Amino acid sequence: MSAANSSTQWCGQSVERVEDAALLTGRGRFIDDLATKPGTLHAAILRSPHGHARLAAIRTDAARALPGIAAVLTGDDIRKLSASLVVGVKAPVECWPIATDRVRYVGEPVAVVVATSRYIAEDALDLIEVDYDTLPAIVDPVAALNPTQPVLHDGLKSNLASERTFRYGEPEEAFTEAAHRIAVTIRYPRNSCTPMETYGLVAEYDPGEDAYDVLANFMGPFSLHAVMARALKVPGNRFRLRTPPDSGGSFGVKQGVFPYIVLMGVAARVTGQPVKWIEDRLEHLAASVSATNRVTTLKAAVDSDGRVRALDWDQLEDVGAHIRAPEPATLYRMHGNLTGAYDIRHVSVRNRVVLTNKTPTGLNRGFGGPQVYYALERLMQRIAVELKLDPVEVIRRNLIPSGAFPYRTATGALLDSGDYVKAFGLALQDGGFAELRQRQATARAEGRLYGIGLTAAVEPSVSNMGYITTVLTPDERRKAGPKNGAQATATISLDPLGGVTVHVSSVPQGQGHRTVLAQIVADDLGLKPSDIRVVTDFDSARDAWSIASGNYSSRFAAAVGGAAKLASGKIKAKLARTAAAQLNVAADDIEFAGGKVRARGNPDNALPFSRLAATSHWSPGLVPEENQALRETAFWSPTQLTAPTEGDEINSSLCHGFIFDFCGVEIDRVTGAARIDKYVTMHDCGTILHPGMVAGQVTGGFAHAVGAALYEEYAYGDDGSFLTGTFADYLVPTTMEVPAPVILHYETPSPFTPLGAKGVGEGNCMSTPVCLANAVADALGLDAIDLPLTPAKLAAHIHGAESTPPQQERPALAAGKGRALHGAGEAHVNASADAVWRMLLDPNTLATIIPGAHGVEKLSDTHFRADVTLGVGPVTGRYKADIRLSDLDAPRAVTLTGIVTGALGDARGAGRITLTPDEAGTRVAYDYDAAIGGKVASIGGRLLDGAAKVVIRQFFAALVRHTGGAPAKRGLFARLFGRDT
Amino acid sequence: MPRLTAGERHTVRFTLNGRAVEAQAEPRMLLTDFLRHELGATGTHVGCEHGVCGACTVEIDGVPARSCLTLAVQTDGASIRTVEGLAPEPGRLSVLQEAFRRHHALQCGFCTAGILMSLDNYLRRQPNPSEHELREFLGGHICRCTGYVPIVAAAMDAARRLRESPSDV
């Protein structure tokens, strides 16, 4: 290695990751892999099957009586020992980690069971009885604003939790003067990046010191440490939070483990033993966090050449059932970037935050970017279509001009560096845009549905911790005091053998931080990465950290990497002065290279690095105090991250990468399936420290975006039931759905970060969904299209809506719609219609023929009650059925209307049974309609129709047996499973 | 077949990565929990517990299987391989593991164990897959970090190397 290139030796290379050998051999140390203290208890959580209901009663006696149960905790128990989680808006609402008076979303915790094993804890969940008085659920964010709708929180007058308007420049004039006004309205759906490892934690409480010690796969931001400590009612120094060495992905989502840290902290306090909780996938999908869904109307004032003069944003953000910290941050993260990559000086904004009966939202890769760019880039395409301009030209004409950086946006962001026009041109050229247009022309000439989409975007990274205060008025901010900055920290220690250890509070979940930090410090100290040991497991009691610590807003390379470089520089300066004294040269003439510290120009005048590095341990007397080099910590908060101004301008992020994407998408004319034919993504993420990892971030973000664009949606029924509770219902893309994108780079180093690096982890989650949607809109000639772009949705556009089947007369359902089921069929019974009629009205007969019945109680001639055990797919549960008979036409017809309720869900339905005598007995025909809610709807959805048919078949088979007739022909179920149906 | 009683613990014995092991399990205990918490083989991960994500894939008697859909007692007497058994010796990675490291085919590493187990088995049965065949096969696994591109590249690379030097593992 030569002295000249020693400072750039390792950064910029795709070195193999130090993390990988352990992970590839099964030696990772994830939260559920770590040993726990003997006596550690295990928790399981009972969750609401309803979207909205008042908790009338919870009976836990039977659960408590089960051997192995240490505690059963409900909202009342948690309230006694903790405080509400602080919320981020000025509103009189509380936010508890467990339901206290009402449940407000499916999956909301209702009770916690703590037991000697998870299996026993889950057994006890089945023994808890909860009486819910169901309330109308509000799912649609627009409808939630309707004054006639129920209000979710008692402290609020409506479901509107926050409203602010903003004005920058002279938007009204621009709208008056512009030649055209063009608008889009979009409804961005809910989705989540669903890390493969779910939440997990082990909580412990020490009554002697009134202190909590929690190990959790939390990811930051550590501003939430303060929220948790306050909720647990201890000072920050009595809430020790640690993270395991490995964490199985996060993408923002593991921020959402924090309410459970409070919940299980209390459980540990009550039981006096450590409590471990590992979330399961069903819990994760229903109730961890999701990204926000948002309804946006975006208007533009546009000149005839496509130049945008002004934007008018109207954003309605749905944060779900609670305003859980740090929300409504999703809405404000992009506030400085509402003009995207464009030079637009006039902006007006109305931001509203609404509460609905859905899972509370939180961090998710892209965080606010997907919602903003979906509106902005759909608008840019609409401008091109409406003004009959080339969409490429519309983007080009609006890009921030070259040479304008650093560029202050209208809403306050300071775009650090870039040459958007140049990167855009390079992408078109190197990505083969002309050839793509040719492919499209050929495809269209052959009658195929082929569209091209474009997106330009600015990818913000390193969030300003003060941006969230833009939700407050300037007056409220003055009272609260300014909030700003983004402290990053890194510590470098030298050990007595001269080894170098780096500690950071970046809490990685697989991004390879240890490898990159070793590269950075190795370059700085003239060592090899293998000489550097990097520790990233976090301990709030020992590590240098601040509220911005953690792994979010793509802050690692720019902020944490930079802080490591600064910490290394501090220790290096001290070592250089010591070496200068020993080598008899000036400190400025000392260089670090090849494992040596030496005089520049005279490499023989050198000391081994390890010997110099050990000096302050063994011979502090040789080193003046100011040069003692044992451990150095750097704190770095960029000065550009200032608090919001009086005019509500906010530099919401430090770094701004540039992205320009284009793609070709073909849609199958028959099935409506969208196939990504080609995808090109250009990134300017500043200086690239590790090309392999940058590629990994881009392809990984792209895959998430493909999922969000084409498949994924956290879907809710109108009654608040959650419909996508398994990985078989919430469809994430596999190898077959994610093509390899063409990745291009153009590097303009950030002048604001120590290494010139910017974040790159979230950009494609922002740019790709709308790029694909623009291509689909182009292919199908659509004005408006919302995600996800499922085959069914696209097929409806191609073929028109499916005609509705001929209506049959059906009994009306009692209440709202969850999973709807209907069916009809008939059976033959070897008995007279009179005999069958008597059986159907006799509780003793019903008890023997209703599948899973534990007893049927006759309350009146037309009113029955029964306890039944039913299984749907993976979920078997006990239910109470309440059945009424009406429209009796003995012995020919009867209508059964029933409500079935249980811990796993509920069903309401009605069916008409008709009896027709025939030569050998009676033909029994039935026709039913039902709606299913609760956990069964979430996770058994695909199986419900089949399960209902099985149960009904079992019923009639039993009826046939009861009449002494021959068993019915064995059905498919029986043939498959060897059981009589 | 021994008669099992719900709620009672039974001794389950099998061969794990070539070594005889035994521990106690209730009939309802999942193989994932048995491997991880009774035997301490935590390399096998639990991603969904309903058989979709593939993270828990292990090899049972030579066949890849979801250990989250398998009861521990079902595997009494079986031969089981897990990710801990893939490397030829401590400190050395298999050809497939090496390819994963070279291609950055893992980030968080949580889904990786299952993918490696599936691929290890597949490449022995199909040493020369097309990329399409390989992608189709890997469709039974979910990875949320990588976007699959480097996983496919690593698997194709490993397949090529194994074809060129069949004696390597």
Question: Would you kindly provide a brief summary of this structure?
Answer:
The complex is a heterodimer of chains A (981) and B (169). Chain A has 981 residues and is α+β, with helices and mostly antiparallel strands.
Features:
heterodimer; A: alpha+beta; Aldehyde Oxidoreductase, domain 3; Aldehyde Oxidoreductase, domain 4; 7-stranded mixed β-sheet; 7-stranded antiparallel β-sheet; 26 helices; globular; disordered N terminus; B: alpha+beta; DNA polymerase, domain 1; 2 domains; 15% strand
Explained architecture:
The complex is a heterodimer of chains A (981) and B (169). Chain A is α+β, with helices and mostly antiparallel strands. Chain A folds into 4 domains: 36-135 and 199-278, Alpha-Beta Complex (Aldehyde Oxidoreductase, domain 3); 144-187 and 290-469 and 642-798, 2-Layer Sandwich (Aldehyde Oxidoreductase, domain 4); 487-547 and 555-636, Aldehyde Oxidoreductase, domain 4, CATH 3.30.365; 819-977, Alpha-D-Glucose-1,6-Bisphosphate, Chain A, domain 4 (2-Layer Sandwich), CATH 3.30.530. Chain A contains 26 helices and 35 strands. In chain A, the strands form 8 sheets. Chain A has a 7-stranded mixed β-sheet with strand order 3-5-1-12-9-10-11. The longest helix of chain A has 28 residues, at 556-583. Mean pLDDT of chain A is 93; it is low at 1-7, 811-816 and 967-981. Chain B contains 5 helices and 5 strands. Chain B is of the alpha+beta class and 169 residues long. The radius of gyration of chain B is 16 Å and the shape is globular. The longest helix of chain B has 16 residues, at 149-164. In chain B, 32% of the residues lie in helices and 15% in strands. Chain B has helices at 31-38, 95-102, 112-125, 131-138, 149-164, and strands at residues 10-16, 19-25, 57-60, 63-66, 79-81. Chain B folds into 2 domains: 10-84, Beta-grasp domain (Ubiquitin-like (UB roll), Roll), CATH 3.10.20; 95-163, Orthogonal Bundle (DNA polymerase, domain 1), CATH 1.10.150.120. The interface between A and B is large, with 57 and 55 residues.
